[in-house]
Design goal:
single chain; mainly beta; nine-stranded mixed sheet; seven-stranded parallel sheet
Length: 268
């Protein structure tokens, strides 16, 4: 069971999205910890990590809602929130965007932020903490700031800059970065200690397993699913992966500059 504790110093709007969990309605004012006090259960769906299926209908039975009462501090324990966020990761602030063009920026020194910008063409800027920035849909601009940040552009042609620190550029689908300049992500400052994280992508779509990529350097694809390679155009470096073994790339990511990469630059 995952628990999210919200301690707010003043009235404000909080939006929470629940998955694979039990959510109840009622007032939440038990020492500023969300709890189901009156026992009225709207929907319960237990999916866990397997290949689960829900059969039948889910019906909303009331509209009582959930009430939050302010407290003294603000700490979010974000668990299983998005691929790449580890269980128990701590964030000092959480902000969720909209379908419009959002601008989000960290303004508390040393705090770790979780920003999910939503579906617009957004600009998201981290601060000095270890921030987790998610672009969502749209052509987004993500800047990590001075901490060891995680950047997940999502769909669209995103522009990602980790800035200082040991940063992670996370990809969860081959659809996150396309094959043309209009659809491909650009990482502007990939450097020593940074990582490109591909663990959420099944490198071999021809099997039922969740396979890892094999980095083959500058070699050409060999009609083997799961190969990841690099090439350059004289100015920038490109990484591309073949997930079905047809010898053609299924996604690309562009890195600014001529870089010689190694398998240690990736989480495969």
């Amino acid at each position: 069971m995952d628990t999210v504790t919200v301690n707010a110093g003043a009235p404000g709007q909080v939006r929470l999205t629940f998955t694979s969990s039990q959510v109840g309605n009622g007032n939440a004012n038990d020492s500023n910890t969300m709890a189901n006090q009156d026992g009225g259960l709207a929907v319960r769906l237990q999916a866990e990590d397997g290949a689960d299926m829900l059969t039948g209908a889910v019906t909303r039975v009331d509209d009582e809602g959930i009430t939050f009462v302010g407290g003294a501090g603000v700490t979010f324990d974000v668990r299983d929130l998005v691929s790449g966020a580890a269980r128990g990761d701590m964030f000092g602030a959480v902000a969720l965007g909209t379908s419009a063009r959002d601008a989000m920026a960290a303004d508390l020194a040393g705090k770790a932020y979780y920003f999910n910008a939503g579906q617009g063409n957004d600009m998201v800027t981290g601060g000095t903490g270890a921030d987790f920035l998610v672009g969502g849909g749209g052509d987004d601009i993500l800047r990590g700031g001075r901490g060891d940040d995680s950047l997940l552009g999502g769909g669209g042609a995103d522009r990602l800059a980790g800035s200082s620190g040991l940063d992670r550029f996370i990809y969860t689908s081959t659809a996150d970065s396309g094959m043309t300049a209009a659809t491909r992500d650009l990482v502007t400052d990939f450097g020593t200690g940074d990582l490109i994280v591909l663990t959420a992508i099944d490198a071999d779509s021809t099997t039922m397993a969740n396979d890892a990529f094999v980095f083959i350097g500058t070699d050409a694809f060999g009609n083997v699913a799961g190969q990841l390679r690099q090439f350059d155009d004289g100015t920038d470096t490109f990484i591309e992966g073949d997930v079905n073994g047809d010898g053609m790339a299924d996604f690309q990511v562009q890195l600014a500059g001529n870089l010689m990469l190694a398998a240690t630059d990736f989480l495969l």
